[in-house]
Design brief:
Blueprint (H helix, E strand, L loop, with lengths): L1 H17 L9 H27 E4 L3 E7 L2 E2 L8 E4 L4 E7 L3 E5 L14 E4 L5 E12 L4 H7 L4 H18 L4 H5 L3 H16 L4 E12 L2 H51 L3 H19 L23
Antiparallel strand pairs: 1-4, 2-3, 2-5, 6-8, 7-8, 8-9
Helix pairs in contact: 1-2, 4-6
């Protein structure tokens, strides 16, 4: 654009020098208007193109890497916004926002079509498949170095291989059951630590590694599920046993209370006091029977003191 602007200005001067207006020319006013119009138009157009070639806009969340005749200006990275640059600069835009690279068993979920899960061997020699997402971003001051030494495809060249290597180097330290259950968080932290070391010094900042899914061999998964089910059954039986023990204790306490009550009642029925109470209770029952609406004949044996003929000791 800068060159075209210069060419337009040069052509304008050539035109002015060639298109001369003399006092004796016919229609001199029309020629002056043409000369003025061409001069003004060429000047404005050429000026716009020259100024436009000096101004570059870097999008938000990005940096601009300047390349001058094939040479990367590693110390002149442009920040986002409007910048004034050398008109002969080629500007390469690189994002510094957080990026997510996913390797998944799901066909259309990861960056690559198809099953892109990471297959790795564990300490006990089993093969497991893992879904992984890596959060990272490009280090702004190092963007020019990354472009110079790696290129804009640094994700495929660096991030992906480093992530897969870190996972395989980590899973080989653990058994499959440990990775699947109690040490999953520890495995994720170990992968994050190793990948951070691998990316150090390459202009790529690791934010976090997300271990999203682990697929075990069918026989191992079935064994783990059977073990978990057995543990749940054992816990259930412990609860039932504890409940039965508490119920037995309750019944024992209840039986002791009933026995104590019976002893107290038995003691209260001994002697004259007990005989008087039974006589009163006997008469009360006869009264209730007498007041009953049913036509009932009740024959109750008793002695002269209205004591029911019961064996009382």
């Amino acid at each position: 654009m800068f060159i075209f602007g210069i060419l337009i200005i040069v052509v304008m001067f050539i035109f002015r020098s060639a298109y001369k207006v003399k006092p004796e020319d016919m229609r001199i006013e029309d020629k002056l208007k043409v000369r003025t119009f061409v001069t003004l138009g060429a000047s404005v157009l050429g000026g716009i193109m020259i100024i436009g070639s000096l101004l570059r806009i870097v999008p938000a969340g990005s940096v601009g890497v300047q390349v001058l005749f094939g040479k990367v200006l590693t110390k002149s990275t442009l920040s986002e916004g409007l910048n004034i640059v050398n008109p002969f600069i080629t500007l390469e835009i690189m994002t510094v926002r957080t990026q997510a690279y996913t390797m998944s068993i799901a066909t259309e979920e990861g960056q690559r079509y198809g099953d892109d899960a990471i297959t790795s061997l564990t300490k006990d020699g089993l093969e497991i498949a893992m879904d992984l997402t890596v959060w990272f971003h490009l280090d702004s001051p190092e963007a020019a170095i990354v472009f110079q030494k790696i290129g804009k495809d640094y994700v495929a060249k660096i991030v992906r291989p480093a992530a897969r290597t870190a996972i395989r180097n980590t899973t080989v330290k653990y058994n499959a059951v440990e990775i699947y259950s109690e040490k999953r968080e520890e495995v994720q932290t170990e992968i994050n630590k190793q990948l951070e070391q691998d990316l150090d010094g390459r202009g790529i900042v690791l934010e976090k590694v997300l271990l999203r899914n682990i697929k075990l061999p069918a026989k191992v998964k079935n064994a783990i599920e059977a073990k978990l089910e057995a543990e749940q059954d054992a816990q259930k039986m412990e609860f039932v046993l504890l409940k039965e023990i508490k119920e037995a204790d309750r019944k024992k306490i209840e039986a002791g209370g009933i026995a104590a009550a019976q002893r107290i009642i038995a003691q209260s029925l001994i002697g004259e006091r007990g005989r008087a109470y039974l006589s009163w209770k006997y008469l009360e029952n006869l009264k209730n029977l007498y007041q009953s609406p049913n036509n009932t004949i009740v024959i109750a044996p008793y002695d002269k003191s209205f004591i029911p003929l019961l064996q009382i000791k």
